[in-house]
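Notes to self after the call with IL:
- keep both proteins in one doc
- input above output, always
- annotate only the second one for now

Protein 1:
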Amino acid sequence: MPETETAKKSSCGCSGHSAPASPATDTTNQTGHIDPVCGMTVIPEKAAASHLFEGTTYYFCNPGCKTRFAGNEEYYLTGKHKEDAAKAAAVAPADTIYFCPMHPEVQSPTFDSCPKCGMALEPMGGAPSDSDPELEDMTRRFKFALSFTAPLFVISMGSMLLMPFIHQYLDHQLLNIVQLFLAIPVVFYGGSVFFKRAWQSVQNKSPNMFTLIAAGVGVAFFYSLTVTILPGLLPESLLGHGGVPHVYFEAASVIITLALLGQVLECRARAKTTDAIRSLLALTPETVLLVTEGAPDRETAVEDVQPGDILRIRPGERICLDGKIVEGVSAIDESTMTGEPLPVTREAGDTVLGGTLNGTGSFTMLVERTGKDTVLARIVETARQAQLSRIPLQDAVDKVAEYFVPAVVLSALATFVGWMVFGPAPALIFALVNAIAVLIIACPCALGLASPMSVTVGVGRGALEGILIKNAAALQHLATVDTVVLDKTGTITEGRPVVEQIVTAGELDEASVLQLAASLEANSEHPLARAILEARTRADLPLLSVRAFNAAPGLGASAWVDGKAVVLGSERFLNGMGIDTASLAKPAEGTAVYLSVNGRAVGLIQMTDRIKSDAAETIGLLKSRDLRVILLSGDNSTTAEVVGKIVGLSANDIHGGMLPDEKAAFIADLKKRGRKVAMAGDGINDAPALATAHVGIAMGDGTDIAAESADIVLVKGDLAGVLRALNLSRAVLGNIKTNLWLAFGYNALAIPLAAGLLYPVFGLLLNPMVAALAMSLSSVSVISNSLRLKQVDLRK
């Protein structure tokens, strides 16, 4: 076998080799260095950036890679970034990791509460489960507390409930003791979860909502306990009927009961925020029909299927794993993967994906990917990681929240002092009740939930629409972009070019030109290479031996093919190597790649690529939103201008003949001029540009979702997906701002009311029990508002 060195695709899609040269050229002085972020081989003299770490200089293919590397050196040098990219989406229940929705960095192998905010931890991935331990616990506590609080409330408020005989005929001190015994189980069992979380917050110096609840309930209960046991401590002015002091056991119990009700409602609402991921996880059937040679088909568990197995898919069945159709044809509903509502016809040789729905046809398929390696599993894992990430806006919210609880405590103290000094008699009672109301009504959780809940729902909604968001920051950045940069091949055009004609210089015939070009491109993933290889297949030409292969992203490739020095690439590439292409007439339309043998141009291959049906409409809609749309193409300027004008771009926004690093430099210049840039490309040759832009959007093909250089992957690869992603990002950011207005507005209005702001004018005070109800509903209102993202129309 001849020695063959193929071009390897790096983790970000860049070529895994140094820039190519003619096989006859001496390259011994061009030592390649690996970019530690994307894996691309970089020549130091041509590196876009470098970084010194512990005495070693690291080189990068573009500034974006350096930015990611700086400050995270160990993460990339140890290969942890590759491990994270390969994590499984589906894990066994025993391996479940729990995290805090408000503080995703807090994770635990066991179910517990967050030491920072006190919120119950949730299982990662939103895996379907028959039980929710937090919801079950809070529901059980609520029902228990309600059974004691109801009679306690009747006893305490008898005169107001048209049952005055309770206080007329029963001893008041005895009633206080009865209330005490009814309150004890409510406070010390029903409310124990709040006291535990409050104590954790004190230990971690992170006061939160539970700190305030515990303080308010504790003051009300222990004050009432003290005056019940030692009524003589109070002056006569503070005593009620029969010389018995006022107690607030019912307030403490009702606050606990309503807080538990709020937790139940919040748990149910939070569960709905992960419905999208849960629905994706539920798409895989539990059993499949395995085809075995010489025996009847047998039903087997999905987890027992291995790559290489043959499965039979019957009409109407859900496809369980990724693979290729061996025999048969059917219309497949791929909406769960791509968001495309219309079924797509698939036949022998076509790829089918797990989680999609078979139509009326029947077929057999060869399994290629199982378990964590399927596209569906990787989509779920990527979406889950995005849900755990934070948007930059959350940092500012966290700063406010950090001082929120201390500010509330100070407000409660100021309220107490104010009523003691300026309030009417009995001043102590007024001061105590209003200070408790201030503590109870404040809700820092509403602030903390404002961003994470919107991100969780938004990322899940995106996954259902074929918009795979890889980090939450991309949502915020995309919502503010004013410039959208588009690649041509695979973004504006279909990315499936076909060979139109072959022009020769006379030395070789068309078949020989095609054979040499196809042999050179046999291991390339570029769309132009695929077109050449498809033409070779149709012509039934054998591949020749290849060695010493070198590739230059965006330019071309060179190698020894069947003992000849062969170079294939753009006119610019060959001219730069001193090869004259003037003898070959450049075609007026389409893309041309030139072929040279032993330093002489011998032919060119002309290819054309259809423009996507939605390209012109989508670009028009983007421009109607006051976005500048720019075309950057590696193709020649003539072809770029033709395509750009067809889709409605102005001449000033069309740029052809650009290399990958030139695209990245162009975007960097836009950023320097204050533009907020989103770049949409194929994720391979466009990797440097995607990494340089504020938001990189990779156009997927329904199977490849791993473009590391991109922040967002459009699984379907349609240009309209850019518009849907933009609409989603703006909807999420707008939803977060609404949540923050609800949270800030609620607290800004509620705390002064609880302090007694309306008393001097209207004589109105806020009962601590009403404050507890308001506090419980405030978090639920934020979550409910976040759930509205499920109904947003992303196509307008």
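Protein 2 (the one to annotate):
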Amino acid sequence: MSRAPLSRPPLWRAIIALAAIALSLYIALTQSARLGLDLRGGTQIVLETRDSPTVKADAASTDRALEVLRQRVDALGVSEPGIARSGEKRIIVELPGVQDPRKAAEVIGRTAQLTVHPVTGATADQGSAMPDADGARTLPDPDQPGNHLKLGPTALTGEGVANAEAVLDQQSLSGWLVSLDFREGAGDTWAKITSDAACAPQGAPERRVVITLDNKIISAPGVTADVRCGTGITGGSTQISGGFGRAEARELAALVKGGALPVPLDVVEQRTVGPTLGADAIEASTKAALIGIALTALFITVVYRLLGALASLALALYGLISYAALVALGATLTLPGLAGFVLAIGMAVDANVLVFERAREEYLGTRSKDLAKPVKTGFAKAWSAVIDSNVTTLLAAGLLFFFATGPVKGFGVTLCIGVLASMLTALVITRALADFAVARSFVRKRPGLTGIASTGRVRTWLSRRNPNLVRHRRRWLGVSALLVAVAFAGILIRGLDLGVEFTGGRLVEYSTSRSVDADTARNAVSDAGFPRAVVQESGDGDITVRTEKLTDDEQQRVKAALEKPGGTVTVERDEQIGPSLGSELRQKALLALGIAVAAQLIYLSVRFRWTLAAAAVSAMVHDVLLVVGLFAWLGRPVDSVFLAALLTVIGYSVNDTVVVFDRVREVRRRDPRGDLENTANHAVVQTLPRTVNTGMGALFILTALAVLGGDSLADFSVALIAGVLVGIASTVFTAVPIAIALEHRNPPPPPARDRCAAKEVPDGYPLEAGRKKERGTGAVV
């Protein structure tokens, strides 16, 4: 026989794996991902409705405003726009390819109350521009500067317009007109207005009809001589002329067609990304991702040999499945989301490493000739740790989805998809591949080929050194307290450099044709009248200028000032956040962090004893403080991308600790009366190979992102690298010592004797398989 018979569970896993791969391949080949504005360039505008004298700003009025905006944006001809309500009073408008946010905001945010009036006379006096109860008013004549037209009561509003379209003037073939089609009844009103006007003498102001938009005359055409008094212009349509260009005619048509907004709108956030910056980000991130994945795959192949090579294949399939899920769900891929996609690969590696290390332990404990048994037991025993560690990450990613906005929300989406896909690939696809491989007679005769028959360098070193890592736990806690004090000192002394999202204001990134250092740029901006502006040089050589308030005209002054030393200056990125939104985002960030801590504590309390949950959360808070303190000392910005990194650190920190505590739980179930310190030390020593190997896999990816991923991902990657390193250390030197202290103060209830007697030790466990345990350490010798 060349192979062992394939049992039913592996067959089902193989079927599920093949179905998932086939479906993902089909989706990937037939559909493309929707790129966020930070990757393809464009403008995002967040509008907030406010109360008018007659209409309250609520969900219903915001929905009506959204439909008006949708028609306006559609009429502007923007390709693949996105319009959605956020909360009760906010509307997010995404305009791919639009690089003039000021003009876009002006067009889509105008109240656009279109009215039509007869003219009752002309005057040189300004009069009152405020309308009477019937709409009568006096407004400047756009055709005769210094003259004002007296408008009669409103005869027609934009509600009577069925359609508006920009058309080329067929007479001049150079100008543009706006063609209006009236609704039923409104056409008769238009005929009545023009009929009355045609009765006035030629040249008289009463022969004109005025069309206003937002209390401003946009057109005041005179009724031509061929229109008969008492008949007017019939047919239910007309044309507005006013020397329009094509863009102006399209904008006016969009405003008229969309109708009036039911409530006023304020711009609370505005972001613009140039197409070059987005293309560069995609190229840099893709290169970093490919290099990081290749290094990670090479690493696990070297460490785990055949099973590592199969896991590398599963990682490639993970990428396919994650991408297909992203496309199928219609999620938007943003730059932080791309980083989350890559980061989830490290978590897929973690699941594989957990399984392979458990399989190694089982094989070394039994030396069974049947390789299928340790592989099966490895997957079974790693299951709880894989689930718990991934759920903690999903909790953090879910908070990003609910509390973050824009690109960072995309990070939460892709991280959630990536974590779920990583569990599928590790527990189903890798399992199916491993089952198939160990069933081959060629592999069964060469157990060293699989990688589970070798001890591994880390495990060999631990067995030889036999360390007691918890003996000096008070010393480790002292070091942790000292590091937290240093972090607090950085926060208090240096302060946090809050990004524009949290402070409000405006941030503009400029690229220059000539190299300009930060000092030169800072002096140029100061001389332009902005001495308090924060001017920095990005890693890509661009110049960023951040101020509390900067109008569009002032932004042009800054640009002109930078042109002197920098030559040609291009706006690559423009972000504007209102002060109210900045304050709200700060509160949301703190709320997200607070909920993250509470959610982890609740989940871990359910899965473990509250003492272990409190220890894990304490170590997590320790990690967060150290990362925040590091950024304070380095003077790096604390923005929404940093918040995403921080919540990821929370998930990773708890992930690492859960693996150790899962082993503690397993040992204590078999030996409830065992010495706690020995149990804890044994858990740390046994899981340390997994911790080191997983950390190495994540660091390969993060280092590639930090070095090659461009300036946009540099701070994000640095925060995560710091979080990974601190998380590895805090699991051993902070979480475990705190857990021991809490367990000593709050011991669990003593187990029932009959339950203890009924406990059976599973076959193959290293400590109970004829190997001896050194008293006081719990390490395998």
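Annotation: Confidence is low (pLDDT under 50) at residues 1-9, 754-781. Residues 275-328 form the longest helix (54 residues).
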